[in-house]
Amino acid sequence: MTADEKEREQRIQKVFSELARYEHPLFVFDARPSGDGVELEIRYRFDDAGIHVYLLQLRPREIDNAQFPWMFQKQLYDGLHDYVIEMFTSNPQRQD
Q1: 38-60 burial, b for 16+ CB within 10 Å, e for fewer?
Q2: In principle, which of 14, 21, 48, 54 could form an S-S bond with 83, CB 3.0–4.6 Å?
């Protein structure tokens, strides 16, 4: 295993460790490698509703930062907020 592969593996494990601290009755979380970083997936638990999956990119500098747990929580909560807003099927600003 190369040094780059080890770094990627450490990053994905770090994200999974943080994800293990979160559970939600409406959403399921997952992560996968994406280039040098990690792609965080937020999915509606009841997927039969046909709701899209929300993807969030975590960059290496974010994951490697000493403040990662706090930064991760902020990004997760911001992502959840954006995802819930995107679930609106109708609102005054929607043009389609």
Answers
A1: bbbbbbbeeeeeeeeebebebee
A2: 54
